[in-house]
Structures are given as C-alpha cells and as structure tokens.
Write a structure and sequence with these properties.
Length: 226
C-alpha cells in the first residue's frame, strides 16, 4: 500500500473500542516517530506526554480543557458580536480525548542542554533560543511546526498497524489555566488520541445526511502557484 493510500485511511474517531493498543507496539511507534522527525538544531523543543490505558482520570482533566475552552469561545463570540447565540451543548467530537487507548498531549519545553556540536557553535557566538524560558512563546511557531511533523509521522506508522488516530487543537493556550495538570509546564500545542475505532465522524455525518456538506475548500483556494 502506498503512503498516500495509508494516510487516506485516517478519519476522525467518534468512539474507540475498549481494546488497548499493545504497550510494546506503542513504544515502537513512538520511537519511530521520534527517530525520523526533523528538528531545528536537533533540539526538539516540545514534550510528548503519553497517557496510557490506566490514566482515565488524567484524560478527563485534559478533555475538560477542550470542553471548557469550547464554551468560553462561544460565549466570547456572542459577547464580541461575532455570533448571536451559543450552541449550548458539549461537542461530542471531543469524546475521543476522554475515551481512548492512548492520549498524547504535546506541549512546548525549555531545552536543558544542546548537543556537543551546538555547544561548540554556542561558544563561537550561535544563539540557541530553545534554551530560555522567556523564548517559549516567541518560538511557539517552530515548536508547533515540528509537532505537526512528529504527528504526521506518528499517524503514518499507526495507520500502517491499523491503529486509528484523531487530533484536537481546541484548548486554552494560557498556561495559567493548566495549573491542575502539572506535567504541562509550558504552552500546550496539540492533543492526539490513538486506538481502534468503533465509529468514525464521517459515519455519523452519513447517518445525518450531512456528509456531502462537510468538505474542504477547493485546492485552488489553498495551493497558490506563483
């Protein structure tokens, strides 16, 4: 199967089966994604926090971040005049964050030490911004881009093993709102859930006769040839 065919298998998961992804397989997938993901100066300025099958309570805390942020965004949109009303219900498509085999929570990190090569470069005047807490927000675009590449690689390896994956970027960016989740010390970047799907979002849309309306923009609106 080609890489395109493998990646095209991915769909957003509404519900996962209770069957867990084997621990040994999960460690192998994470190793492969870590191994091939590029990073500026080989710093990898992010953490991948792995919440396994035994971390149900911790997953609920993360899910609450998505739900509360959704409510806050809708309330703010009404307050600021973007919308006239709120939906007023919990988005069911966040359920994958709470119920899954594994949940990966990505967040920025301050790198503690450069490798030997960049130690020498720093001695000659190179500035390694990844080493300083005050630069976390200023390089969040770099960290987020690198996380995107890690997740893309991780997704590919998961799909090769018929493991489904889903993502969520709905959560508060303000680290002050993460005090109840102490392992997230710096800017949160993305959530990724893994497991074996019981139901996909597109199947839900088919049942509601809405699948034909939920489409991407035309390619010409996204890709611009100069």
């Amino acid at each position: 199967m080609s890489i395109f065919d493998t990646m095209e298998k991915r769909h957003h998961v509404v519900k996962y089966k209770p069957e867990p992804v084997p621990d040994r397989l999960m460690k192998d997938l994470l190793y492969k994604a870590w191994k091939i993901s590029p990073s500026k100066n080989n710093f990898m300025p992010y953490n991948v926090h792995v919440l396994g099958p035994d971390k149900a309570n911790e997953k609920v805390l993360v899910w609450n971040k998505s739900v509360n942020n959704h409510v806050s965004m809708e309330d703010g949109a009404v307050r600021d005049g973007y919308n006239t009303k709120v939906q007023g219900f919990v988005n069911p498509y966040y359920e994958h964050v709470k119920y899954n085999s594994y949940l990966l929570v990505f967040s920025s990190r301050v790198c503690d030490e450069p490798n030997a090569y960049y130690k020498r470069q720093i001695e000659t005047g190179h500035f390694a911004e990844q080493l300083y807490p005050e630069w976390v927000e200023r390089i969040v675009d770099t960290a987020a881009t690198e996380v995107g590449m890690f997740i893309s690689n991780m997704s590919m390896y998961c799909l090769e093993e018929n493991i489904d994956v889903s993502y969520t970027s709905c959560f508060p960016r303000d680290i002050e709102k993460w005090k109840d989740i102490p392992y997230v010390e710096h800017r949160p970047l993305l959530f990724m859930s893994l497991g074996y799907a019981k139901k996909y979002r597109y199947e839900d849309l088919i049942e509601r006769n809405e699948i034909q309306d939920d489409i991407k923009p035309d390619i010409d609106k996204v890709i611009k040839w100069i």
